[in-house]
Amino acid sequence: MAVFFYGGTWENGRRQDYGWVGRALAAEGFLTLSPDYRLYPEVTYPTFLEDGAAAIAWAVENAAQHGGDPSRSC
């Protein structure tokens, strides 16, 4: 399983622009999640990190339901 966070300095960026990353990782056999997270000015630090931690927790808890193995993370 791989969780990919797109860049954008916490002010911009869209996960939709990085579909190629998910496809490339999936082609290598990874179940891939590219979560959205809230951006500035809607939220400030450390909320970005809390959103990321919640996404990783969700991925680990739900990987098996989507054909993944959470013990094989990278």
Structure overview:
This protein has 74 residues and is mainly alpha-helical. The chain has one domain (2-70). It has two helices and two strands. The protein has helices at residues 19-27, 47-62; strands at residues 2-3, 32-33. A two-stranded parallel ribbon has the order 1-2. Strand 1, helix 1 and strand 2 form a beta-alpha-beta unit. The longest helix has 16 residues, at 47-62. The termini are close together. The model has no long low-confidence stretch (mean pLDDT 90).
Distance between the first and last residues' Cα: 7 Å
Structural class: mainly alpha
- The dominant shape is flat
Reading the helices and strands in chain order gives: EHEH
The percent range for helix content is 25-40%
Mean pLDDT, rounded to whole units?
A: 90
Radius of gyration: 13 Å
Helix segment count? Answer: 2
List low-confidence stretches: none
What is the strand arrangement across the widest sheet?
Answer: 1-2
Largest sheet: 2 strands, parallel
Q: What's the number of extended β-strand segments?
A: 2
| Tally of individual domains | 1
Strand content: 5-15%
List the helices and strands and how they pair.
Layout (H helix, E strand, L loop, with lengths): L1 E2 L15 H9 L4 E2 L13 H16 L12
Parallel strand pairs: 1-2
